[in-house]
Hints:
The protein is mostly helical. It has helices at 4-32, 40-63, 67-90, 96-121.
Amino acid sequence: MRSTSASIATGLLFTLGLVLTGSLLTAILLSFTDLKESSLPYFTYTINIISLLLGGIITGRRCMNRGWYYGGLTGITYFMLVLLIGFLGFDAPMRLMTLFYLLGAFLISALGGVIGVNMTARR
């Protein structure tokens, strides 16, 4: 059995890698197509949701038990990292919606963790 902190770190790095890759692809699409900047929030939310779900799956597969818990921890860790960057780098204030984003990140990654554990159980 792998250590849980290494599994969460792997899921977190996978999530960050997907977010960076998706952001780069979105920037390329905005630059070279007729895509409007008004559609940017939809891309951002979609990229984050897919990345959190897949990061939770990776964490759940590596932990092999308590997928909702460890997947959710991956989501919370990702959210705290993004919040820290936003607060320190861009002076983004804390708002009530921030708590809803935290809950969403936890739930999406927890769902991914459950899926990941169940994918492991079928082997």
